[in-house]
Design goal:
This protein is an alpha/beta fold and 315 residues long. It is built from eight helices and 16 strands. Helices cover 25% and strands 27% of the residues. α1 runs parallel beside α6 and α5 runs antiparallel to α7.
Amino acid sequence: MSLNIIFMGTPEFSVPTLRSLIDAGHKVRAVYTQPPRPGGRRGLDLQKSPVHQAAELLGLPVFTPVNFKDPDERQRFRDLDADVAVVVAYGLLLPEAILTGTRLGCYNGHASLLPRWRGAAPIQRAIMAGDAKTGMMVMKMDKGLDTGPVALTREVEIGGTMTAGELHDRLMLVGAKAMAEAMNKLEHDELPLTAQPSQGILYAAKIDKAETRIDFGKPAVDVHNHIRGLSPFPGAWFEADIAGRPERIKVLGSELADGSGPAGRVLTDDLVVACASGAVRLTKLQKAGGKPLAAADFLRGTPIAPGTVFASEQA
């Protein structure tokens, strides 16, 4: 036996799950993903999503609706006559007609320990909040935002220097394995569902550009978590006076360090910067238009002397 599955996903994070379902012997009847978007160096080329590209390589039918308001689009979904839909970072809210458009409903792979960090940016928010662990959950979807009952949980520890990019890659693989396991259990009617707790609910709002500037006026641990939670994208940043003009510099790596002083002051020649309490060492930096560089390499091309002060006010 195997399940007939509709797969719905868009970014690279979703691709291992698609492959894992096929490797587990299930039949993917169709793939839904976001429509091609402008990209390329000048933004003139339409680029297919990573899931779209993977599906074509696997010889799977691909659909890219802008939404599911069109009755014909909803009917096409139902006509696929699938057992279940698997959703991983698709990027569209699904109406009830889609949630109930398969025999067994829709199951979502979500990158948090629900009900903590429902919403768009659970990986970044977990690190920015200093969480010690997170995980992947397989959840049966309902009309709410990540509110459905949980079927399977896999916890992942968050290391003290782990970045959002590193956690993303770890959860991507954990989630692929978890979803394949969940679908195998569902196939044999052995997948339990447990309602989410009513306590501990937090929402992971989409990262706003206005919150990406580093505020050295906060404690060092908060600054460090902010930096690693936004690395590699969109990147936390500070502004420095370079060759007589202000320049924005991204920080893609940091570590807690010894030292104290006025918030934002560079304390050492290896970029230890004072915070409201404690200090952080900036270990990986990137100038606008440049490559990410280890601090020592960055400083060879862009000297920043001890005593320099980075402004702490938010833009």
